[in-house]
């Protein structure tokens, strides 16, 4: 999957405002907060609260609870995840923890150990006929 | 090749250890331990003791600085704290309050 906002090599140091990269040789212990997108290729232990997308790159390790607008994982995440938008767990990624999000996609080859809690729209034919159309309650 | 950039909207409270170039555009509170160069850009705030290779400051630093190389305090930059370095430049327009310790 291609990065949609990868900076060109020429301005690698001049990341657009609000974007951040934790490189492979960097380790952070503590709280990471703020607005903007973060790519983690290094290690973060602590807490992440982000208004923006968090991308845990291949080789990246995050041992912390994560609260973000969106999350893509190609590396390792250990902690509970709360995301308003989409969580994408890519092939080769390893996630241990509970995930609560708007939606989740798990690629083939990804490893996931935890609970998933997200809103699922069931197709109408799976809903019982005696329920109302939006399937507020489902009995089986 | 790889480097770390703490973007303008980002705050880190804690400890950063970096074996690569570190650029701070946002806020860091705690401790910075870097082996390579550190650049604190205009608008950035660092409230931390800093250990680094070459250090460039165009933003604000409150904390003690220890550099194995040079410290370059640029115009508009501000340092409150002691600086230990092999070489130091303080540009016209920079603010500095603290002691300088150089091996002589």
What features would you highlight for this structure?
heterodimer; A: 140 residues; mainly beta; 13-stranded parallel beta sheet; 50% strand; disordered N terminus; disordered C terminus; B: mainly beta; six-stranded parallel beta sheet
Structure description:
The complex is a heterodimer of chains A (140) and B (104). Chain A is 0% helix and 50% strand. Chain A is mostly beta strands and 140 residues long. The termini of chain A are far apart. In chain A, strands 1, 2, 3, 4, 5, 6, 7, 8, 9, 10, 11, 12 and 13 form a 13-stranded parallel sheet that branches. Chain A has strands spanning 20-22, 26-35, 38-40, 43-51, 53-56, 61-68, 70-73, 76-78, 81-89, 94-96, 99-106, 111-113, 116-118. By secondary structure, chain B is mainly beta. Helices cover 0% and strands 61% of the residues of chain B. In chain B, the strands form two sheets. In chain B, strands 2, 4, 6, 8, 9, 11, 12, 14 and 15 form a nine-stranded parallel sheet that branches. Classes of the chains: A mainly beta (140), B mainly beta (104). Chain A binds chain B through residues 12-13, 15-38, 41-42, 46, 52, and chain B through 2-23, 25-26, 30, 39. Strand 2 (26-35) of chain A pairs antiparallel with strand 2 of chain B.
Mean pLDDT of chain A: 82
Number of E strands of chain B: 15
Shape descriptor of chain B = globular
Largest pleated sheet of chain A: 13 strands, parallel
Tally of structural domains of chain A: 1
Largest interface, per-chain counts? A-B, 30 and 26 residues
Q: Calculate Rg of chain B over CA atoms.
A: 12 Å
Give me the secondary-structure topology.
The complex is a heterodimer of chains A (140) and B (104).
Chain A: E1 20-22, E2 26-35, E3 38-40, E4 43-51, E5 53-56, E6 61-68, E7 70-73, E8 76-78, E9 81-89, E10 94-96, E11 99-106, E12 111-113, E13 116-118
Parallel strand pairs in A: 1-3, 2-4, 3-5, 4-6, 5-7, 6-8, 6-9, 7-9, 8-10, 9-11, 10-12, 11-13
Chain B: E1 3-6, E2 10-18, E3 21-24, E4 27-34, E5 38-40, E6 45-52, E7 55-57, E8 60-62, E9 65-67, E10 70-73, E11 78-80, E12 83-84, E13 87-90, E14 95-97, E15 100-101
Parallel strand pairs in B: 1-3, 2-4, 3-5, 4-6, 5-7, 6-8, 6-9, 7-10, 8-11, 9-12, 10-13, 11-14, 12-15
């Amino acid at each position: 999957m291609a990065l949609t906002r990868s900076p060109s090599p020429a301005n690698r140091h001049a990341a657009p405002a609000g974007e951040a990269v934790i490189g492979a040789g960097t380790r952070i212990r503590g709280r990471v907060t703020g607005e903007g997108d973060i790519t983690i290729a290094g290690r973060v232990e602590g807490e992440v609260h982000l208004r923006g997308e968090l991308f845990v790159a291949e080789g990246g390790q995050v041992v912390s609870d994560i609260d973000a607008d969106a999350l893509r994982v190609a590396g390792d995440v250990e902690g509970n995840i709360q995301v308003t938008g989409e969580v994408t767990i890519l092939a080769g990624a390893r996630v241990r923890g509970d995930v609560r999000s708007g939606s989740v996609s798990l690629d083939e080859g990804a490893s996931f150990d935890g609970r998933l809690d997200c809103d699922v729209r069931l197709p109408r034919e799976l809903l019982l006929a005696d329920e109302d159309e939006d399937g507020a309650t489902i009995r089986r | 090749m790889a480097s770390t950039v703490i973007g303008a909207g980002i705050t880190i409270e804690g400890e950063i250890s970096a074996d690569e170039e570190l650029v701070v555009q946002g806020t860091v509170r705690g401790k910075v331990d870097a082996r390579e160069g550190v650049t604190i850009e205009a608008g950035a705030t660092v409230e931390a003791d800093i250990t680094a290779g070459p250090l460039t400051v165009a933003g604000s630093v409150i904390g003690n600085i220890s550099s194995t190389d040079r410290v370059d305090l640029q115009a508009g930059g501000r340092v409150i704290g002691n600086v230990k370095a092999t070489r130091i430049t303080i540009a016209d327009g920079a603010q500095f309050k603290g002691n300088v310790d150089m091996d002589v």
